[in-house]
Structures are given as structure tokens and as C-alpha cells.
Amino acid sequence: MKPSLLETSDAARQACSDRVGIAKLAKLAFDGQDIRSIWQELMARLLDGTADAGEGLDLSLLAQLLGDKPAGLAIQREVLLAHRLFRTPCASKTPHLRVLALAAATDMGSNTPIEFLLEQSGIELMVLYVIAEAELQVPLPEHDIAIVIASDSEDCRDALRKIAAVAGRWPRPLLNPPERIGNLDRDKLHRLLTGIEGLVIPATVHADRAQLLQAAQSLPALSNLAPELAFPLIIRPRGSHAGVGLAKVDDGAALKLYLDGREEQAFFISRFVDYAGEDGQFRKYRVVFVDGRPFACHMAIADRWDIWYLNAGMSASLAKRLEEETFMRTFDIGFGRRHQSALSDVARRVGLDYFIIDCAETRDGSLLIFEADNTAVVHNMDPPSVFPYKPPQMRRIFEAFAAMLERRVATARERAA
């Protein structure tokens, strides 16, 4: 017997609490605006009991943007215990599509920042938080399409399990199914993508502190963790993001020194791949996949291997920006064509409707993948006066995302007719 679909209702949709949201608040912070005064105003409202749920969630984001993650998560928890459905501003007073995003109660970097993708569209965005302390809201708010935006991180897994339990009964198209998001974990991704021609992805291995202390003293102990492991290694605490705790260790002594300086008990390790170009510079690319199609998102260039966009000094170098502009403008006939087969296989194996990879090119021309996830920030916040080539490219990505949603809704309606 086919399980019955989950119910939806317009009444549940009307229970949305409006909020400013991450896109606008992050833009204020990115531009150097005084978000502390906004935080103080909302905190005063929270303390005197006049803040609504949307303002409480905005306050949680502001605290995190100001660097106080524990306070932000504490505020978020209290808000979500009472209210879990939110709406962010839409560019149109009469939205032509309604999207329901399914989020986890986690930090602002562990849910897809979907607001950036839809901010300028005529699509209404509702976010429903799935929390451990409550069952999934039923009936669901009326919507045209849903997407899972929780990540593969440890604190999102309960939410992913709850969504997976009812995914087969979802009444509308459901994008980024939770079981596929789970494949993006660093150690699982290697197993998923290994064997793709033209692609290099070093095995990422989980190891605890005791195992690593043994490996620091004995090469056989290191190879016992995985045959391909050898110094130099890349190491990071399990569950860390944005380069926190990331290091290259060249030998056992360096590994011991690294562990002495960390309190974590679980780590990911992988072999280091030197991807420097002939000029000694490292180039790291972010590629966004929308409905299987890759798009250039950004390119960072630096003389250090542990590169991400904010430490690459792109705004201070015209030469770097010209190279990034060339990467973006020629992606379909350049980088994208060189790695067309590998990128196509990555999209097929990952199987998500929307995801991102951070990657590079090795000296022999292979595609080197560092990580894949569904939550990296894809935005249009950079100043056009410095990066005039970025807004058109970002709009291409945003329009492709909106078009994907519209196609999926149209297909579902045709099948139901």
C-alpha cells in the first residue's frame, strides 16, 4: 500500500514569522556597517519581551556575525523551541513560486544560505527548522517545492534522519534528498568519487588522537590507517570548517607538535598534494553545480597552499582579478571544457540538485577536489567597483537556480494533470 502524502495547508503557511535573514545581515557586516547597534536594539527587545520569533532568529545571526557563536546558538535554541517556520523578504509582492527550505538547528554556516540565491527573484522563501526537541510540523505550510538545506555535519544528522523518514511521502518535489547529502562527509566523498578518470581526490581518513600519536612515532602505524598515507599530511579536527585547525605536517615530530596544541580527540587526515603552478602560485576554484551543470563561482590565487578567498588578497591585486575574470568568462570553453568529463561524473555520482566543490588543477592537468558540500556561500556581495565581472556571473547562477525550481514544479504539475 502506497503511504499517504503529508498534508499541507495555507493556514500553516500564514504562521510564518518574518525575518531580515542572513543575506541582508551578512551584506551589512561585509560592507563594514554597524551591525552591533542593530544587535543592541534587538537584544533590548528580546529582554523586555517585545521581540517576535523572526527578530529573535535575526539576533542569533547577528551574534554569530559579531563572533559570539555560543550566544547566537543559545538564542536560536530558545527561539526554535517556540517557533520554527520563518519567511524572508521576497523581491515581489506577488511571488510566482513558494519554496520551503528544510533546515537544521545549527550555526549559520551549516545550512545552505539559500537566501543569497533567491534574494532578487520573485520566489517566496520559507524556512522550516527541524529540531531534536519536536516532531516535524504537520500539516506543512503550503508550498510548490521543497529543498533540504541542512549539511552533512554532525549536528545536522538528526534533522536529516527525520526528513529522510518522511521524504518518500513528501507532497511536492523535494530537492537535495538527505541520504545524498550524507555522502558529502569528507571520508565518504573519496569513496564516492574514486575511480573517475581525470580526477584526483586523496583518501580522507578518520583517526583519533591515540592513533595519530602512534603514527607520529611509526610510519607503519600511519600506513595502517590507510595504505596511501605518507608525510606530508593534511590534518584538521573532525567537524571543523573554514580552515579552522587545518594544517600541513611534514613529519612525525610536526604531527606530535600539532596534537599538543589541539584539544580535539577526532581528526581527518589525508595526503598532501602539491598543486602549485609553475609560477609557484596556488589556484583554488569554487564551482557550483545547479541541476548537474557546473558554473564558475570564484577563483583564489595565493602563494600558500591553505588558500581560501578571504586570505588570497584578490581585492589588492589587479593581476589576480584579471585572471579570475578570465576564468569566469571562459569557463565553458576553458576550465569547464578541460574537465568536462570529470565534472559530469562528479555531478552524476553526487546526485544532488545543488552543491559546490572546491578544487584545483594538478601539474599534470587533473582535477583535484578538496571538498564538496551544499552549504558554501555563493553570494554577490563583492563591490562591483573592484570586481565588475562578478555580478553578471553571480546572476547567471541565481537565475539557473530559480529556473531549476520552476522546471521541477512545472514537471510535477504536468505529471499530476
Explain how this protein is built.
The protein is built from 16 helices and 17 strands. Helix 2 (22-30) packs parallel to helix 4 (53-65) and helix 10 packs antiparallel against helix 12. The chain has helices spanning 10-14, 22-30, 35-47, 53-65, 69-82, 114-118, 157-167, 178-181, 186-193, 209-217, 219-225, 252-260, 318-329, 335-338, 340-350, 390-416; strands at residues 8-9, 17-18, 85-88, 97-104, 123-130, 140-141, 145-148, 174-175, 199-200, 205-208, 233-237, 247-249, 266-271, 282-290, 293-302, 354-361, 367-373. 39% of the residues lie in helices and 21% in strands. The strands form 4 sheets. It has a 6-stranded mixed sheet.
Count of DSSP H/I helices: 16
Counting DSSP E segments of at least 2 residues, the number of strands comes to 17
What is the CA-CA span between the terminal residues?
Answer: 22 Å
**Largest sheet report:** 6 strands, mixed
Task: Give the averaged pLDDT, no decimals.
Answer: 92
Residue share in helices?
Answer: 25-40%
Give the oligomeric state: single chain
Percent of residues in β-strands: 15-25%
Structural class: alpha/beta
Shape: globular
Uncertain runs are none
Biggest sheet: strand arrangement: 2-3-5-4-7-8
Radius of gyration: 22 Å
At a glance:
The protein is α/β, with parallel strands linked by helices and 417 residues long.
List the helices and strands and how they pair.
Elements: E1 8-9, H1 10-14, E2 17-18, H2 22-30, H3 35-47, H4 53-65, H5 69-82, E3 85-88, E4 97-104, H6 114-118, E5 123-130, E6 140-141, E7 145-148, H7 157-167, E8 174-175, H8 178-181, H9 186-193, E9 199-200, E10 205-208, H10 209-217, H11 219-225, E11 233-237, E12 247-249, H12 252-260, E13 266-271, E14 282-290, E15 293-302, H13 318-329, H14 335-338, H15 340-350, E16 354-361, E17 367-373, H16 390-416
Parallel strand pairs: 1-6, 2-3, 4-5, 4-7, 7-8, 9-17
Antiparallel strand pairs: 3-5, 10-13, 11-12, 11-13, 14-15, 14-16, 16-17
Helix pairs in contact: 2-4, 3-4, 4-5, 10-11, 10-12
